[in-house]
Amino acid sequence: MKKYSLNTELSSFNTFNLYIITFIIFMCFVYTIYIKYIFGIVMWFLVLTLLYLGAFRKVLKYKSIEFDSENIYFDGKIISLKKIIMIDDGRIYYQENGENKEVIFRYNHFENNIEILREFYRESRYNK
């Protein structure tokens, strides 16, 4: 079976850009500490805190997901499409060992792979 990927090179490029921007902001923070500019230290600290709370906590949880017409694959796990509860934008909710879990992924909205996964999911639901 052909495997598809939800992660595209564009989404990886966006994550790389986030790392570069964070590095630049961090260097500005270090520079303001070096020149002892109190307002700059507070401002860059707030920017780094907001960046961490808004983006990095989610980016660090992203999983690289591949799928075919019967299963999804991530972190060495194989989850049947029949065990999936719901596919949302950026999240897949599934059932494992009797408890509901979720996996967070990053995808490009211009790619069609999420729609292919949803179609496989609908087909697996109807063919129980």
Number of strands: 7
- CATH architecture, by name, is Roll
Helix content: 40-55%
User: For the residues shown, what is the average pLDDT?
Assistant: 82
Key words describing this protein structure:
single chain; elongated; 7 strands; PH-domain like; 128 residues; 3-stranded antiparallel beta sheet; 4-stranded antiparallel beta sheet; alpha+beta; 48% helix
3D architecture notes:
This protein has 128 residues and is α+β, with helices and mostly antiparallel strands. The chain has one domain: PH-domain like (Roll), CATH 2.30.29. The chain is built from three helices and seven strands; from the N terminus they run E-H-H-E-E-E-E-E-E-H. Helix 1 runs antiparallel to helix 2 (38-59). The radius of gyration is 19 Å and the shape is elongated.
Secondary-structure blueprint:
Layout: E1 4-5, H1 9-34, H2 38-59, E2 66-67, E3 71-74, E4 77-80, E5 84-88, E6 91-96, E7 99-104, H3 113-126
Antiparallel strand pairs: 1-2, 2-3, 3-4, 5-6, 6-7
Helix pairs in contact: 1-2
